[in-house]
Amino acid sequence: MLTTALGDTGLTSSVLGFGCSGVLGRSGRSESLRALSAAFDAGITFYDTARSYGYGESEALLGEFLRGRRDRVVVATKFGMIPSQQTLWKRAAKPFARALMRVAPAVRGFVRRQAAAEVMGHRFTLAILEESIEMSLRKLKTDHVDLLYMHAAPSTVLEDDALLRAMERLVQAGKVRATGISAHPEVIELVLERPPRPLQSIQFPCNVLNFWITEEEIAQARRSGLALVANNPFGGVDRVHHTRAALSRMAQSETTPAAIREKLARLEDGILADAVLNVIVKGTGIHVVVPAMMKPRHVKSNVDAVTRSRFSAEETNWLRSRLRERQRGGPLQD
What we know:
Strand order of the largest sheet: 3-4-5-8-9-10-11-12
CATH superfamily: NADP-dependent oxidoreductase domain
Mean pLDDT: 89
Helix content: 40-55%
CATH topology: TIM Barrel
Number of strands: 12
Distance between the termini: 33 Å
């Protein structure tokens, strides 16, 4: 597995991260543990979770899994989105909902909208910060987290000096190694203009459908010592088919070099992962890409993609440049 130094944080991790949004969310306990085991065995050392993931239980299962492994991984978590209290009947309904999504994919959107309604967002107060980090440490069964992000944060947090100072105190107390912000592109662009202390990492969506961050912005972030973490690389579970369609169109275009057309002609999981993940991390300056991969076969495809790419550096650069050109008028759509 390829590794990278995460900006000026003092942390080192694999370039491929494991996104825990599906842990005890769309995947149950056994399936989640199998995926985590496959990732760890393959050399993945970056694990990205949040207080809100898995109806508030993703951190606990990750902490259980990492017992005896904690010193070999980077654990990132987030605060600012809070899961609501789960009643007994809602907990009992989760396995049924997961089974229903497997046999009837059309209901996935409805189930995820219901799950989203169980989360309270934009909770960026000092009290929530203190409560969240203590809860995260207990659930993760650790005395510190490596990265603590503000989760889906609005731009107003960048002017909240009291909140930023409180995050800095967590670093000084040893409960957090480095702090950051996870946000939509428009907020990340404000961070890049003037990175507020003590933020040392940015996490943002980046994918074939919307490769919004420019070479100049990445260079500026690296000059500032920021660790860059890209999430949502396949566009989200419900939009993988849009990603596949966008690459299929490139495979059918006469303006695409023949060698690339040949490789994209049959978009099985391995080729899809290869194109998507390497467009994001190969030669860009982005440190880590974090897909949610809840099946061992998806873990294998993603690991193979970043360690044994079928695309040369020149081909990956061509794909990335072409995607950026096509998006100047807006994100690619099916």
